[in-house]
Amino acid sequence: MPLDEEKNGACVRSIYVNNPHLDSMTDDILYHFNLGTSTHDLPAMFGDVKFVCVGGSPWRMKSFTEYIAKELGLSGTNAEYPNICAGTDRYAMYKVGPVLSVSHGMGIPSISIMLHELIKLLYHSRCTDVTVVRIGTSGGIGLKPGTVLITKQSVDSVFQPRFEQIILGKPVVRSTELDGELAEELLQCGKDLAEFDTVIGNTMCTLDFYEGQARLDGAFCSYSEEDKQRYLAEAYAAGVRNIEMESSVFAAMCKLSNLRAAVVCVTLLDRLKGDQLTSSHDVLKNYQERPQALVGHYIKKKLKDSKKS
Amino acid sequence: MPLDEEKNGACVRSIYVNNPHLDSMTDDILYHFNLGTSTHDLPAMFGDVKFVCVGGSPWRMKSFTEYIAKELGLSGTNAEYPNICAGTDRYAMYKVGPVLSVSHGMGIPSISIMLHELIKLLYHSRCTDVTVVRIGTSGGIGLKPGTVLITKQSVDSVFQPRFEQIILGKPVVRSTELDGELAEELLQCGKDLAEFDTVIGNTMCTLDFYEGQARLDGAFCSYSEEDKQRYLAEAYAAGVRNIEMESSVFAAMCKLSNLRAAVVCVTLLDRLKGDQLTSSHDVLKNYQERPQALVGHYIKKKLKDSKKS
């Protein structure tokens, strides 16, 4: 399939599924969404989707939907957005206009299941020109808590921009390259808003929140404060400004399926100064609203531009 | 700390935290549970816990609590079990008598965060003699769907009983040994019940549901049906009878913290015959109730034995 197809004279960016077996299936059950091609009219339900926002917490994805509905003037009085995946508790999914919002739980395996089924959902729905943004939380390195970081490169625990996928017991290395132009556009949105600090930097993606991120407060810890500081200083020197647990497989899978993708995470604390989240509930809540404000601004801007052209 | 301590003449099995930093912390915030040592009286809330059941789905862990309350005669009329972690949507936690029930989401990173905080919770609560059982769902290899499998060894994608933890960027290999005696006791419970097939076998734990488990129905697939069958046949030859996504880190972390641990998963399909979950909702629901029936029977038996002695 070509990267971009001509359709009615306009250049259209299609979604790839790199799986020859799918075409021979009469039905495709998206088990963890409780949706399927024979039980649901996916093109009717999702064909108009242009933006997908994903995040760990189902509550946050619901609140994002309410927020974006208001921003786009699409919320009626007492508008309620039903959870499209109400038949399962694995993920939650909401839709308002061209914006789909999906939760992905915590960690690479959890977001990977969601992305396999999301990519197939967008493909079966014949969506085109879709932008996917992960809005999340993270630990910062050398940044003021509350800073919003747009990921330049997602790197592994030795600061390399790669994701290792095990296939039939063998490792296959995939690129974690994200869309540079989109990252710059999002940075500009942060400047437009001027409500909080927004920066671009590298994001380290780990398989674990405690030992994998050099925390001293897990159930197990075999290293010293000095070891921790040395490791975080090495990460900083490699351009890493925050740490989270989903960006590498997110970048790799979006790239493979030709989806324009970005990662926008707020930093809840500065890991150079501590490990525990001691800020008040209200402060943390305010921080968590920042990525959604930034991405909401971006979506509004894009929809305004597309109406003009 | 010794493996077993003498307390009032009785042999007591303590919980380990292998982290010297914890003792110097004035407060410990269990962030993903929304609990903490300075905000909650953990020994009063959890000191009597003897059994912890963990599973991916919050709904299933709630239903397990209702089931075990009834089985143990601890449920009043219209009994309601509040979610102890109601302040967060990361995990759900319920308690009835000596039984704690906690959800862990999907995949190694998600269960690992939960286990770090659970182990610290049990430690801070000064719990002793705790048994932890993961009750879950899985794909079977060469087993009739609905079979309940008790894990002998949790193995990785090349069928080795090990879990690789990255610490400060370097891999540390941990044993995934589970309690053999507990597994045999659980097998006996399956025989007592005689309601479904219960077997002991090895469990393969993967980081991914689609490519990592040789499925042909993901968004990406670079191998043939023959490649898939060859890989699953190799797994079968190595004693693997089911595949899931949490057992290796669960086994490793329970072993490190001196918790008696078992993994009891029902197989929802036979992967040699297909990849999609095509069974009806009711059939799958019935399958998912089997691990909870088996573990419920075990807990009842143990509590009866302890009253006798």
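qc> The mean pLDDT of chain B is 95.
qc> done
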